[in-house]
Write a structure and sequence with these properties.
Elements lengths: L16 E3 L2 E7 L9 E8 L6 E4 L3 E8 L1 E6 L2 E6 L3 E4 L5 E5 L3 E9 L3 H7 L2 E2 H4 L8 H6 L6 E5 L5
Antiparallel strand pairs: 1-2, 1-11, 2-3, 3-10, 4-12, 5-8, 5-10, 6-7, 6-9
Length: 158
């Protein structure tokens, strides 16, 4: 049986928010799948990169919708363009770096729940306006342990 999800209905929990200088939104929250998986979209500017980090609970699947993005998974680098996919296994350090003027990435997390960490550390776009607000990286990193997420190094750079 195929189940459809109202992923693009304009509900408050699916509104875009700023996260670490880029825009994010939850397209499919974990409760819609019994927390089996969640789906998020990230829209980031050139040079955007989160610190290297490890998810102890989640697998990640990154799908580049627009732009050029390098994914760093363990000791490997994967340079992807729109339409290509990379996988981040749980327990393996990873990060990414936007190489084009901007990029949009769809990310599947399995199992779900990490999307709540992103939301809790984001700022609603409607409150912040068109430009990303300043963020406190130490506070974001400090809240990660509750989600079995840990930073293992600095972000990659251009």
């Amino acid at each position: 049986m195929i189940k459809s999800f109202p992923a693009f209905e304009p509900t408050p929990d699916r509104e875009p928010f700023w996260f670490l200088g880029g825009r994010a939104r939850i397209l499919l929250p974990g409760p819609a799948t019994g927390n089996a998986l969640s789906l998020m979209e990230f829209s980031d500017p050139i040079g955007h990169a989160p610190p290297h980090h490890v998810h102890e609970n989640e697998e990640e699947l990154w799908f580049v919708l627009d732009g050029e993005v390098s994914f760093f998974v363990g000791d490997e680098r994967h340079d992807l363009i729109a339409g290509q996919v990379a996988h981040g296994p749980r327990g393996v350090p990873h990060s990414y770096l936007v190489r084009s003027e901007g990029a949009r990435i769809a990310v599947v997390f399995s199992p779900a729940c990490i999307e709540e960490w992103f939301r809790a550390n984001g700022t609603p776009v409607g409150e912040a306006g068109d430009l990303p607000p300043a963020f406190d990286l130490a506070a974001v990193v400090g809240s990660a342990a509750a989600f079995s997420l840990r930073v293992t190094g600095p972000p990659p750079t251009l």
